[in-house]
Write a structure and sequence with these properties.
About 50% of the residues lie in helices and about 10% in strands. The model has no long low-confidence stretch (mean pLDDT about 90). By secondary structure, it is an alpha/beta fold.
Length: about 425
């Protein structure tokens, strides 16, 4: 088996000149190590100890083309029809009016739950659909197209954004028996948002953090700065900020025993003491939600899930549990688990899809100022397993002209082409 794999790695695909092993290495450097496209040839030259041969190594344009061809292949690859498919659905946006609908899938029979949470290699890309307008009817149509590949799924998991929620409801109305699942992380974030945004102390806390940051970030006390809150999804990322708050309070509590460190912290963050009780309350909120979300991420949704979560939450120390919030999370899991059948564990989290978007945006950093482009096809390469045999099939069946046709269909113009046209001396 090893010799056969080595022989396959040394051979180029049909109509190609680069060995499959080199293609595989370049793709892995980009998708797994986060190496920029233009940097891959230099990395290869260093690893191969042949700096003078850089010109003979694959260039950024070749690697980009491979990523697009592999990604497009995933959208047409033959897939077994089955009744246990799970779809994870969400949209992502960039500069401009275009956004992309992405559907990931996995079979329940192949799910790693409850041993661990989902990883990128556990799912495969079923659809990548750039659109300028998205409605419930449009999303429902996109789901019907995916069903032609997999069959009617067992469940659809999403964050219930307006058009995705409506589209899922229209689809399930036509196909009874499909379970619509609300992503646990987004539900937990909404519970936190409802509590914190109605808390005047939280608004004051965030305001003072912003003021202190502006006065501190260019000083010798920059090491004391609080972790930033993300403009989007800030209620899904509170843990580091609240942990920092508790550590700062502990530093302030050292008093004179803390020496210069405490004195400098006192000058910048002495006001934090007035939020001690609130920080304790917020920390209990966050720990309770984190426990609930982690449970669903790893255990899934089953007939016994609500009871198991109740036991898990009861085991939290009193300082890390909010009883009212725990009750809401247990009820949420009970409702979401109502569709589960005996012996079945449904997926209850889209975090693997959110992670996929995050990695893709990191890869696309070189083109982000050009808005959404055909490089969005690289999403298909980040998900799933890519043995050499699959790479060979993809490159031999998906040519550059196929990628060009796909890009022409979905991206007849880009932000970059519009800039060139507008600023051209001959533009009207």
């Amino acid at each position: 088996m090893g010799a056969a794999n080595d022989a396959l790695a040394a051979a180029p695909p049909k109509r190609g000149s680069t060995p499959l092993g080199v293609v595989d290495g370049c793709v892995r450097l980009v998708t797994q190590a986060g190496v920029a496209l233009r940097t891959v040839p230099r990395v290869l030259a260093i690893l191969l100890r042949t700096p003078s041969a850089t010109d003979s190594l694959p260039g950024a344009s070749s690697i980009r083309s491979w990523l697009q061809r592999l990604g497009l292949f995933t959208l047409h690859e033959s897939i077994e029809h089955a009744d246990d498919w799970v779809w994870l659905v969400d949209h992502s946006v960039q500069l401009g009016e275009t956004k992309v609908c992405v559907v990931l899938g996995l079979r329940l029979s192949e799910s790693p739950l409850p041993a661990r949470s989902l990883r990128h290699e556990d799912v495969r890309t079923l659809a990548i659909v750039p659109v300028k307008t998205s409605t419930g009817e449009i999303v429902a149509g996109q789901l019907e197209e995916v069903a032609k590949r997999t069959g009617i799924p067992r469940s659809i998991v999403s964050d219930r954004g307006g058009d995705v929620k409506k589209g899922g409801e229209l689809f399930t109305a036509r196909h009874p028996g499909v379970a619509l699942i609300y992503d646990a992380a987004h539900r937990g974030a909404s519970l936190l948002k409802r509590r914190l945004e109605s808390d005047e102390r939280w608004s004051e806390f965030v305001r003072l953090l912003g003021q202190t940051k502006s006065r501190t970030q260019q000083t010798a006390d920059a090491h004391l700065l609080a972790p930033g809150l993300r403009p989007k999804a800030r209620y899904m990322n509170l843990r580091s900020l609240l942990k920092w708050s508790r550590r700062l309070l502990a530093l302030l509590d050292r008093g004179e025993g803390g020496g210069v460190a405490t004195a400098r912290a006192e000058a910048r963050y002495g006001w934090l003491r007035t939020f001690r009780e609130s920080i304790g309350t917020w920390s209990r909120y966050e720990a309770t939600v984190r426990c609930g979300v982690e449970f669903v991420r790893t255990q899934g949704l089953s007939i016994a899930a609500a009871g198991e979560l109740a036991t898990r939450l009861e085991s939290l120390p009193a300082g890390e549990r909010d009883d009212a919030l725990a009750a809401e999370l247990i009820e949420f899991v009970r409702v979401q688990s109502a569709s589960a059948r005996p012996g079945e564990r449904l997926v209850g989290s889209t975090e693997v899809l959110e992670s996929l978007f995050g990695k893709w945006k990191h890869l696309e950093r070189q083109e982000s100022q050009s808005g959404m482009t055909g490089f969005v096809l690289s999403l298909g390469v980040i998900a799933g397993k890519w043995p050499l045999s699959r790479i060979q099939s993809a490159l031999e069946s998906t040519q550059v002209k196929h990628v060009e046709a796909w890009c022409k269909q979905y991206f007849p113009t880009t932000l970059q082409s519009q800039r060139r046209l507008v600023f051209s001396p001959t533009s009207p």
